[in-house]
Amino acid sequence: MTDVLRRGRASLAFSFLVQGVAFALLVTRIPAIQNRYGVSDALLPAFLAAVPVLAGVGSVTTERLVKRVPPSRLLRWSQPVVLLALLGVGAGERMVELGVALAAFGLAVGVLDASMNMLGVSLQRSYGRSIMLSFHAAYSLGGIVGASLAWVGAHWQLALWVSYLPVVLVLLPAVLVGSRWYVDDRGAASVAEDQAGEGGAVVFKWLLPLCLVMTVAYIGDSTVSNWSAKYLQDVLGSSEQMATVPFNVYMVTTLLGRAIGDFGVRRFGAVAVVRGGALVAAGGFAVVATAPGAWVGMLGFTLLGLGLCVLVPQTFAAAGRLFPGASDAAVARLNVFNYVGFLVGSPLVGALGDLWSYRGAMLVPMVLVLVTLVYARSFGAQPDRYGGGHERPRTADVGRGSNGL
C-alpha cells in the first residue's frame, strides 16, 4: 500500500504542476490574446471575469458529481479539457471561438481544482502527516515554468498556437498516463465518517471561517499578480524592466515556502504555521505600503510570497479534518471562495488606488490577512459535534501526532 500511495502522491503532484503551467500560460499572455482577437479594453474584464465565475460553477458541480463519480476520474478527464481549451484559446480566430474556449477552460478548471484538492486531502489522511503543501509547491513550480515559456513565446514573437501546441502535445499524453496512479482513498474516508459519529454532512457555519480565509488569501494573491508591476513602476519609480521582477520573486518565494511548509506543520502544527504565515504576509503588505523605493518594495513582495503561500493548502487540509466523513463536499464548497477572492482582489485594489492612493490600497489586504488570526483555531480543531458548540482539539491534527515524523 505504501508504493500505491507514493505513486498516487507523485502522479497528483504532477497534475498540480501541469495545472500551474496551463494557468500561467493563459494569464501571462492576456495582452497577446487581446490583440489576436481584437478584444477592447472595455470588454476584456468581462472575458477575464467569466473564467473564475464558470470555475465556481464547475466546483459546485463537482460536489454533486463526486457522489457518483470518484474524484480521480473527474481529474483524469478535466485536465485534458483544460489543456485542449488552452490550445483553443491560442488557435481561434473569432471572438466567439475565444468565448467558447474560455468557457470550457473555466468550467474544466473548477472541476480540476476541486478534484485535485479532494485527492490531496484524502492522500494526506492516508499518510497521517502533512503533505498538502507539497502539492501546491508543485503548482507554484508549474507557474514558474509556464511564465518562463510565455516569456519565450513573447520574446520570439511566436503566434499563440505555436507557443501552446508543443506544451499541449507533451503534457496531454503525460497526464493521461499519470492518471493511472491516482488514489481514491475511499476506505479511509469511510472510517473517518464512522469516527465522526454522524452522516458526514457539511455544516456551513463551521466551514465559513475557512471560506473567509480562502477569500482573503486569494485577494492577497491577486493583488500581487495584478498590481505588483504597476505599483513598483508608478508608485516606487522603478524601471519597466525592474517592475517585472516582483511577481517572479513572489512566485519563487511561494515555491520555497511551500516546499518546506509541510515540515513546519509537522513540527509546530497547522495553527502556528497559519498564524505565522498571516503575520508575515501582513508585514509584507506593510513594507510594500511604506516602501521608500523599489528595492524595499521588492522585499515586501518577497515577504508576501513567504506568508501567503501556506494559507490556501492549509485551508483545504483543515476542511478535510473538520469534515472527515464529507471532505469531498467541503473541499468543493471551499474551492468556490478561491474564485471569489480572485474576482474581488484586483478590482478592490484598483478602485481604492484610483479613489484614494495605491499605498493606502495595500493596507486593505493587509488588514484582511490579519483577520486570519481570528480564525486560526479552525485549522487545528473541530467543533464539538456532540453538543455545547465548543471546539475540541483533534489528536490526529497533522504534524503533531506520532505519525507526523
General description of the model:
- The chain crosses the membrane at residues 12-30, 42-62, 74-92, 98-119, 131-152, 158-183, 203-221, 241-261, 268-289, 295-319, 331-350, 356-376.
- This is MFS transporter.
- Residues 207-405 form the Major facilitator superfamily (MFS) profile domain.
- InterPro entries: MFS, MFS_dom, MFS_trans_sf, MFS_Transporter.
- This protein is mainly α and 405 residues long.
- Strands 1-2 form a two-stranded antiparallel ribbon.
- It has 16 helices and 2 strands.
- It has helices at residues 2-27, 30-37, 44-65, 71-91, 95-127, 132-155, 160-178, 186-196, 204-235, 240-243, 245-268, 270-290, 294-308, 311-322, 327-355, 358-370; strands at residues 381-383, 391-393.
- Strand 1 (381-383) and strand 2 (391-393) form a beta hairpin.
Looking at this protein, list some descriptive labels.
single chain; 405 residues; mainly alpha; two-stranded antiparallel sheet
Note the main sheet: 2 strands, antiparallel
State the helical fraction: over 70%
Number of helices: 16
Classify the beta-strand content into a percent band. Answer: under 5%
Transmembrane segments: 12-30, 42-62, 74-92, 98-119, 131-152, 158-183, 203-221, 241-261, 268-289, 295-319, 331-350, 356-376
Membrane topology: Multi-pass membrane protein
Biased composition (Basic and acidic residues): 387-397
Protein name: MFS transporter
In terms of topology, how is this protein built?
Elements: H1 2-27, H2 30-37, H3 44-65, H4 71-91, H5 95-127, H6 132-155, H7 160-178, H8 186-196, H9 204-235, H10 240-243, H11 245-268, H12 270-290, H13 294-308, H14 311-322, H15 327-355, H16 358-370, E1 381-383, E2 391-393
Antiparallel strand pairs: 1-2
Helix pairs in contact: 1-4, 1-5, 1-6, 1-7, 3-5, 3-15, 4-5, 4-7, 5-14, 5-15, 6-11, 6-14, 9-11, 9-13, 9-14, 9-15, 9-16, 11-12, 11-13, 12-13, 12-16, 14-15, 15-16
Subcellular location: Cell membrane
Main location: membrane
Protein name: MFS transporter
